[in-house]
């Protein structure tokens, strides 16, 4: 009787785990099936490099790829130095109380809704950029990257801090005992040993930047063009999906959003696999 | 490096670190400050209930126009539905991962959950949308609706629940793990009476943060049935309003100052909800693990 109940329990748990894992595959399957006509005969790769001109029957999503690449990479450029600085600060320079408060603040920031960043972007940042450069509407790659930089900084800071914390304390004590200052220890002992944490943080932040919809949708301008300057409007893969309003489910225009979905899915899956390759932060070092 | 160069590097790094911290704090306070400065006047019962008497609105006697009540009700219902869908499945899956899965299976399932956690929310929304299309082919007249949104959001937060459950169960000390077993308890009894209660605070903090994600997510619901005006949701299969979508909608479609102000009010409310959930999660579990904030 007891053994039977145990077995049922185990089976029920297994079904839940399998069903959850299945969702991962199911999402990919749905995207593929719905976008199928676009994938036949290697068309997918042709589409990657073509412009978007539905009028002429061209449904390439080069502009969206370029938009996603420009905005997310630029946001990384914005966020990386600040995140590195803040995690230096948190690791060895901050007065204890201030460090504690700042860390809580950073954790809170991971939960701030992206729609709020977007909303403030529309009414605070965009007018500022418009006046500063006196060029266009202010809805551009630069505005979106700045806001997105702020969105992904907390993710980076938390992973960088984890990476720093995972460095063996003996190394740090040895360096300090030899007379190195806090900063020297940080630069020459902690930083070189925390590259895993740095890489993980960077990839996670890039993934979050690529996957975010609302900021780009609200303040990047959404023009379907390959942006050629920071002040050009751009459309990302995510906002392209959000903007679709094709009434006809069989049109190629409608199917192209599934190709965007597949691209995003694969990019993020690649990021996840890369992180697993590097090994989770501190998995093998934290408990030495 | 020479003595002098080292000294200057030292100073430069200190300045760099301090200024980074100050920039981040200033940016955050600038954002929140501008929200509060522009929106604090709108805060009040009018913001939520418009011209309707609050009690009548809550009891659904009177429909609210010009207030946030339908959007708040929609978000609340959405959160309750998706969390009650996701929690049982997610927690059970987490228990399986921690207690039963073999090393190989754990690696494969773990990879699936990591990928699922990384899928952008708009793609999850697209999945829900395509699901609705399929259902539309089977049941005539089926449209994206509250039920589709809830199911999609449940999928979105599933991997967080699995991971928080799994890590907090695996964190239980080996000694405690075998005590009940040594006293003759079965594996199931050990899990239900010892391991689960022991990891409850970790699981709860995961649930609280999952609630936060359901409440704030906009990308999933904009593809799966949320609309700008629908009133208080009356059925699982009807369209509905939600707070985050309202904020998005107002930012591009506001027609007058009053509507814009309502948008500011909605942003403040949503931000306060997220702050409250964050504080609850902290309270539930002091020294919250980073895993909880692990988010793409």
List keywords for this structure.
heterodimer; A: 288 residues; mainly alpha; MetI-like fold; two-stranded antiparallel ribbon; 13 helices; 74% helix; 1% strand; disordered C terminus; B: 296 residues; membrane (chain B); MetI-like_sf (chain B)
Please mark out the parts of chain A with pLDDT under 50 across 5 or more consecutive residues, or reply none.
281-288
* DSSP strand content of chain B: under 5%
**Overall number of strands of chain A:** 2
CATH class of chain B: Mainly Alpha
Helix tally of chain B equals: 13
Distance between the termini of chain B: 40 Å
> What is the mean predicted local confidence, pLDDT of chain A?
87
Number of domains of chain B: 1
Q: Give the overall shape of chain B.
A: globular
Distance between the termini of chain A: 44 Å
Quaternary assembly: heterodimer
CATH fold name of chain A: MetI-like fold
Q: Unreliable runs of chain B, pLDDT <50, ≥5 residues?
A: none
How many distinct helices of chain A?
13
Domain ABC transmembrane type-1 (chain A): 65-275
Transmembrane segments (chain A): 12-39, 59-84, 105-129, 141-165, 186-207, 256-275
InterPro entries (chain A): MetI-like (IPR000515), MetI-like_sf (IPR035906), Phosphate_PstC (IPR011864), Phosphate_Transport_Permease (IPR051124)
Subcellular location (chain A): Cell membrane
